[in-house]
Amino acid sequence: MAQLRWRIPHPTTKSLDYDIRVVVIGDKLGYWSRGIRKDDFRASGSGSVSYDKNLVSPALINTAFEAASALDTDCMGFDIIYDPKTHDPLIIEMSYGFPHATLLESGGYYDKEGTWHNSPLNAPVAILKRLLNKAEKQKLSANQVKLTS
């Protein structure tokens, strides 16, 4: 699976202080924010991590879940900023890879309704459970086809 990356030139990028890395696994959304490096537009690798829930708006949650659903992914990471003019969340990068430990340290996750759950989102476990659940549903569907044939 290839990582899709693109850079969107934005005249106000230098005025941004952070981006938000959002990870969507099924009906769970974990996050952390990353400070922008001095004299740079990138947050990746800055070492400045925060778990401020005030940065996660209902619009951001909806945007991330809608994108993951449209892409039909089991797990996807999105880098999101808020447009400085409209304050709408904008996805600026997506990636299947992210630091698992950083996600665990957030201490919880949001569901699709925007409710916070105080249980760490353990990505490998959540992905495995999701895939096993899908496989079980497919197995049941296959058995139903055999029974009705």
Topology (elements, then pairings):
Elements (H helix, E strand, L loop, with lengths): L17 E8 L2 E8 L13 E2 L7 H14 L3 E8 L6 E7 L4 H6 L3 E2 L5 E2 L5 H26 L1
Antiparallel strand pairs: 1-2, 1-4, 2-3, 4-5, 6-7
Organism: Halomonas piscis
Protein name: ATP-grasp domain-containing protein
How far apart are the first and last residues' alpha carbons, in Å?
36 Å
Please tell me the total number of domains: 1
What's the rounded overall pLDDT mean? 82
User: How would you spell out the order of helices and strands?
Assistant: EEEHEEHEEH
Instruction: Identify the CATH architecture.
Output: 2-Layer Sandwich
Look at the structure and name the CATH superfamily. ATP-grasp fold, B domain
- Spatially, the strands of the biggest sheet line up as 3-2-1-4-5
Largest sheet data? 5 strands, antiparallel
Which regions have little confidence, pLDDT < 50, spanning 5+ residues? 1-14
Helix content: 25-40%
If you compute it from the alpha carbons, what radius of gyration comes out, rounded to the nearest whole angstrom?
Answer: 17 Å
Q: Could you say which overall geometry the principal axes of the C-alpha atoms support?
A: elongated
Q: How much beta, percentage-wise?
A: 15-25%
Question: Tell me, what is the CATH class?
Answer: Alpha Beta
* Number of helices in the DSSP assignment: 3
Main structural class: alpha+beta
CATH topology annotation: D-amino Acid Aminotransferase, Chain A, domain 1
Organism: Halomonas piscis
Protein name: ATP-grasp domain-containing protein
